[in-house]
Design a protein that fits this description.
- The chain is mainly alpha-helical.
- Helix content is about 70%, strand content about 0%.
- The chain is built from eleven helices and no strands.
- The longest helix is centred in the C-terminal third of the chain and has 28 residues.
- The two termini are about 35 Å apart.
């Protein structure tokens, strides 16, 4: 009951009860021998890479899927999720969410048993990290674009687990009325945060293609609208998304059957960035 109630993982700002269960299980088996914490964290990350390969393979060729999965597996931006024991929740919520998506991709009809497994995994992802809500969006999006039969049942199920999560969270840890001031951006007004959006998106794009100067705590903020910190990132962001739009238009003209897959991954990208914002 202590792991489900208020603790360092379940505070007034967060409710992540699966993480203390994970750490309690490891501590029960291995005490404070850190090797095994790192070992299982690495195993989960590798499993995530394999699952992502299986998901990509549903849409792309094996060679392209393998290449993209390899980028996910070894990209330096993953260092926090893979090397920092306290960040195990990142890999865990992705594991549950990607498993749920993988089960949704099966060719045969999704029955009640598989639906139950999918939404239990999505619920576990939510209980591990709030960002797990992204996978609920992705699973519903896949059903809408590719397999609309049973879509309404998935919407109802998604709505129910969202309500269940909100009910449990509010019932146990309550609602946070004050700000969580762990980083300078938390002190900014809504308008000032909007000013930071171009630089934040540009940071992710830049880090993906050129991962230098990595840091765990991002404490930088943009306070003024100027060329270097606002207009330049804004122009680069716009050019990037214009390029994606042109790619989508080309796919739509040349191979309409592949266009839903393009929309699927584009919305996944935008929704993922939206969670970070």
């Amino acid at each position: 009951p202590t792991l489900l109630g208020k603790n360092v993982y379940n505070s007034i700002w967060y409710y992540r009860p699966f993480q203390p269960f994970y750490f309690a299980a490891l501590y029960m088996l291995f005490k404070d021998f850190s090797f095994f914490y790192h070992f299982f964290q690495l195993v989960i990350h590798i499993a995530n890479g394999i699952l992502l390969f299986m998901v990509f393979k549903h849409f792309l060729t094996k060679k392209v899927s393998f290449f993209l999965s390899l980028i996910f597996l070894i990209h330096p931006v993953q260092v926090e999720s893979v090397s920092f024991i306290s960040s195990s929740g990142n890999s865990l919520f992705f594991l549950f969410g990607t498993f749920a998506l993988f089960f949704s991709l099966k060719d045969n009809e999704i029955n009640l048993k598989r639906s139950l497994i999918i939404f239990c995994l999505l619920f576990f992802s939510l209980l591990t990290r709030e960002t797990g809500f992204l996978f609920l969006i992705i699973v519903l999006l896949y059903k809408f674009l590719f397999k609309r039969r049973g879509f309404f049942m998935f919407v109802i199920s998604g709505f129910l687990i969202t309500l269940l999560y909100i009910f449990i969270r509010l019932g146990i840890v309550g609602y946070a009325s004050e700000k969580l001031q762990l980083a300078p951006i938390a002190w900014l007004s809504f308008t000032d945060r909007i000013i930071n959006i171009p630089a934040i998106v540009f940071y992710y794009l830049k880090t993906f293609f050129f991962p230098s100067k990595l840091a765990i705590d991002q404490h930088w903020i943009i306070k003024t609208i100027d060329f270097q910190n606002f207009y330049l990132p804004l122009v680069i962001d716009m050019l990037f998304f214009i390029f994606l739009g042109l790619v989508g238009f080309y796919i739509f003209k040349k191979n309409k059957e592949s266009f839903p897959a393009f929309i699927f991954f584009l919305i996944w990208l935008i929704a993922g960035l939206g969670m970070c914002l």
